[in-house]
């Protein structure tokens, strides 16, 4: 036989019982060559280019999913940071671009379009400012458009003015989508060191250093890792790391196979595989459950950071070995609302915002999909973002912040976003404020890279 | 160093694997499982290249490797036909492309 019986049964188990799937095939498209004489003609050219590349995406993905019997959950498009197209004088035409892209995405059965983004780690152009102030409008008026703003990097330092503005943008976006618990904020990420090839939303955009069009794939599989760990209750932590690594290897290989085939079929370059353990609200598809399977009573309890560090690092190692090109965020995601067990930990008080922050220093993203009280002041939101950004900048890693101030709700109440976004118990926020500090504004210089401790 | 005159075995293997599928049948043992599944495969022109089966307690597992190069229907449709046939006789039937296993288990 070509394969061992045990190999065949293992693969089957991963697919049928443990929710192994390809989370997303994300087609990155450069739109910086679409500038026209007027912004109206720019819009036309952007739409035409995306239509050209993205039209065959859904059908191709469905065919490949059927061929291999592997679910591919989402088809997405990421465009160049839209702020780079802007002069700042476009006004409401920018919202029109978003609305047209939203319609196009719906017509082509594209789940999300990312790239209403600005890179402002060192300062703002008029285009950046326009994009940022339009975000509440765009995110509340559209269904599938996602935005992100990179406010800091380890090379350039931290733009505190941008953080403050994003605090305001988040509050305003929540207010405008108040009837749906502030869901607009779920489509908005504030980044430090944002990757240019990330296939995951809401932070995906097509970086300026990328080819004209490229396919990036995000693979998932916390369920598979959890079951592997559960089957080895006696393994010591060195052995556990090895088990996770081997599992990550196998999962990533599937992503690579699918990604290459999609890229070939639609005739664009294959970019990267992003191996991220990305949970969904489905039972068994949870990163918190992986941590609990390792032996932590409830995710958020002491030991959780260590367990997550082991998990993230082993995932990266297995993934790197499996694919020639690993990129994006690659590691483990720890969103609250998208992970039913993570949310349960918040509900019973095992997981605090402070512990989440600590865990993000070893995970692959940041404070993700966390519901905070709707009356949290802008300064406090900015300070939470600032603390998280500092972790990313000083440690030379990507961090993203996706906070949802749920209008009219207080700590302990429930916010419901639905679908893959799940639901979240509003988390307690430390009432002592750093407003006077963050209101000073300005830029924090880039950190030193020697004298590390 | 490059060996000359040797065919590229990888290409040969790739070509041979292009139409291969792995069919797994799991369920309670009973008479006629193999007959039902293999006749279904014959109906759709799938050539069986390898077959192994095992009975553990009252559970039956069978793994078949098939070649679908002459199969007139798509792999998705074939998967459905087999699953339906399985349902009739009370077993679960899964069909996967062989390349998945190659990707996962071979470096």
Mind explaining what this structure looks like?
- The complex is a heterodimer of chains A (about 450) and B (about 110).
- Chain A has about 450 residues and is of the alpha/beta class.
- Chain A folds into two domains: about 25-190, Anaerobic Ribonucleotide-triphosphate Reductase Large Chain, CATH 3.20.70; about 220-440, Anaerobic Ribonucleotide-triphosphate Reductase Large Chain.
- Chain A contains 14 helices and 14 strands.
- Chain A has helices spanning about 5-15, 40-55, 55-70, 95-105, 125-140, 160-175, 220-230, 235-265, 285-295, 305-320, 340-350, 355-360, 380-395, 435-440, and strands at about 20-30, 70-80, 110-120, 145-155, 155-160, 190, 215-220, 270-275, 330, 370-375, 400-405, 415, 425, 445.
- In chain A, strands 1, 2, 3, 4, 5, 6, 7, 8, 9, 10, 11 and 14 form a twelve-stranded mixed sheet that branches. Chain A has a two-stranded antiparallel sheet with strand order 12-13.
- In chain A, β2, α4 and β3 (about 110-120) form a beta-alpha-beta unit.
- The mean pLDDT of chain A is about 95.
- By secondary structure, chain B is of the alpha+beta class.
- Chain B has one domain (about 30-105): ACT domain (Alpha-Beta Plaits, 2-Layer Sandwich).
- Chain B has four helices and four strands.
- In chain B, strands 2-3-1-4 form a four-stranded antiparallel sheet.
- Chain B is globular.
- The two termini of chain B are about 20 Å apart.
- At the A-B interface, α1, α3 and α8 of A face β1, β2, β3, α3 and β4 of B.
């Amino acid at each position: 036989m070509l394969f061992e019986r045990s190999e065949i049964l293992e693969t089957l188990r991963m697919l049928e019982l443990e929710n192994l799937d390809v989370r997303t095939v994300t087609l990155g498209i450069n739109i910086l060559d679409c500038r026209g004489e007027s912004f109206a003609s720019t819009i036309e050219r952007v739409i035409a280019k995306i239509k050209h590349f993205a039209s065959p995406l859904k059908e191709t993905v469905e065919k490949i999913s059927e061929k291999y019997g592997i679910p591919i959950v989402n088809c997405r498009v990421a465009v160049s940071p839209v702020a780079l197209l802007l002069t700042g004088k476009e006004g409401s035409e920018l919202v029109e671009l978003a609305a047209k892209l939203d319609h196009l995405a719906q017509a082509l059965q594209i789940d999300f379009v990312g790239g209403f983004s600005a890179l402002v780690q060192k300062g703002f152009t008029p285009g950046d400012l326009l994009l940022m102030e339009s975000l509440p409008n765009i995110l509340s008026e559209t269904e599938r458009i996602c935005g992100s703003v990179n406010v800091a990097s380890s090379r350039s330092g931290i733009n505190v003015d941008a953080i403050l503005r994003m605090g305001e943008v988040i509050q305003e976006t929540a207010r405008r989508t108040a009837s749906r618990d502030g869901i607009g904020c779920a489509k908005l990420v504030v980044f430090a060191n944002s990757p240019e090839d990330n296939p995951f939303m809401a932070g995906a955009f097509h970086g300026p250093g990328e080819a004209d069009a490229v396919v990036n794939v995000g693979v998932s599989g916390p369920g598979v890792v959890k079951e592997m760990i559960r089957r080895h209750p006696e393994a010591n932590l060195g052995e556990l790391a090895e088990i996770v690594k081997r599992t990550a290897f196998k999962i990533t290989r599937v992503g690579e196979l699918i990604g290459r085939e999609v890229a070939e079929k639609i005739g664009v370059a294959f970019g990267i595989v992003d191996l991220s353990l990305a949970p969904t609200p489905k039972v068994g598809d949870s990163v918190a459950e992986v941590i609990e399977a390792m032996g932590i009573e409830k995710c958020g309890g002491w030991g959780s950071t260590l367990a997550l560090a082991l998990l993230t690092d082993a995932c990266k190692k297995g993934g790197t070995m499996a694919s020639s090109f690993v990129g994006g965020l690659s590691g483990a995601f720890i969103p609250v609302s998208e992970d039913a067990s993570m949310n349960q930990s918040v509900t019973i008080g095992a997981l605090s915002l402070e512990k989440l922050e600590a865990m993000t220093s070893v995970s692959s993203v940041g404070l993700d999909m966390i519901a905070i009280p709707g009356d949290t002041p802008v300064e406090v939101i900015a300070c939470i973002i600032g603390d998280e950004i500092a972790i990313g900048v000083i440690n030379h890693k990507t961090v993203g912040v996706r906070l949802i101030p749920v209008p009219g709700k207080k700590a302990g109440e429930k916010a419901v976003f639905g679908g893959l976004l799940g639901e979240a118990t509003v988390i307690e926020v430390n009432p002592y404020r750093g407003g006077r500090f963050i209101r000073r504004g300005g830029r924090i210089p880039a950190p030193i890279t020697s004298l590390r401790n | 160093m490059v060996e000359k005159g040797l065919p590229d075995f990888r290409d040969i293997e790739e070509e041979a694997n292009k139409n291969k599928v792995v069919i797994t049948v799991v369920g309670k043992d009973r008479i006629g499982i193999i007959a039902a599944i293999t006749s279904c495969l014959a109906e759709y022109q799938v050539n069986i290249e390898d077959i192994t089966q095992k009975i553990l307690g009252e559970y039956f597992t069978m793994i078949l490797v098939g070649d679908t190069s002459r199969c007139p229907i798509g792999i998705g449709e074939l998967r459905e036909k087999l699953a339906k046939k399985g349902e009739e006789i009370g077993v679960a039937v899964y069909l996967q492309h062989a390349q998945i296993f190659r990707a996962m288990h071979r470096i």
